[in-house]
Every structure is written in structure tokens, then in C-alpha cells.
Amino acid sequence: MITAIRNLHDSTFDFIQRLLQDWFPGLLARFVFAAVLFMYYFNSAKTKVGDGLAGFLTIDDGAYIQILPTVMEQYGYDASQIPAFPYQLIVYAGTYSEFILPVLIVAGLFTRLAAAGMVGFVVVQSYVDITAHGADEKTIGAWFDRVPDAAILDQRALWVFLLTYLAIYGAGKVSLDHVLGGNRNNHYR
Hints:
mainly alpha
């Protein structure tokens, strides 16, 4: 009896895996990213640039305050006094990464690279929130406790898991990566 149940289990889930593995997990991961994080990052990025279409090319002082608050304080909250290298480079890269990487992930274009970049972005974002913005103990949270609602260790661990999946396995067959890359040895599974 147990053998029959195990065989039914194995054949059922083997069938489901064969049916979905090449397209569904990557599509679902990108959908969840779009539903949960895309607007979060897009709105955050918008606070770092000027208004309107031309404003997209102008980095606002708010970007320096959000990304490098201690550096901004060191230069008297005057972004024009901050050295271009490395600080302005960091702010420009951080700001435009927040716009570009989420779009690439949702579109499924250069997904692995974009997801790996977003993992790095989330790690840096968390570090800045803790060290420069003074996140409190409740916001930071703790792993292996009974409360799963901390903004940094709990929520961002799930973000990193989602992005790590995309970095390792790619966007799947329902993506621009697959369309543009063809079937190159199932590279975009």
C-alpha cells in the first residue's frame, strides 16, 4: 500500500514538474517581484531624481541623503560639494540601478545579471538602513524568532531568496531572455 501511494505521489509530482519547470517558476518569480517590489523600487528611485522627463537625468539632493546620509552631513548637506569619485558615482549608480534593474527583471531581459545586481542592491540598502539611517531593533528584526514581520532581516531575506532564484535559474521560457537567446542549451530555464 505504501509503495502504491509513493508511486502515485512520485508520478503525479514528476508530471507536474515536467509540465511547469521550464516556464512557470521563472514567470511566477518575476510576477511576484512585479507585484511586491517593482513599484516600491520605482517610487523610491523617483524620489532621487528631478521632476518630469528631463528630471530623470538630474540627481536630486534627496538621493545623496538617502544613499549616503553621513557623507551628505559631512559636506553640510550641499551635494555640489561632494566629490564625484567615489560618492557621486555611487549615488548615480544606485539611483539608476533602482530604475533599470527592476524593469529588466520584470521583462525577463538579462534576468540573471539584473537579479544578481538587485541582490547586491538589497544588501547595500539594508546596510545603509542599519548603519546610516539608524534602523531600530524592531525594524532590523531577528531570524529564528516567532515574529516574521521585521522589515530588514525577515522581509528582505525573502526578497533575496526570490532574486537568488532568478539569478541562478533565470527567467524561464516566457521571457525576453528566452526569445532573444533561443534555446541555447536550455540556458534560460
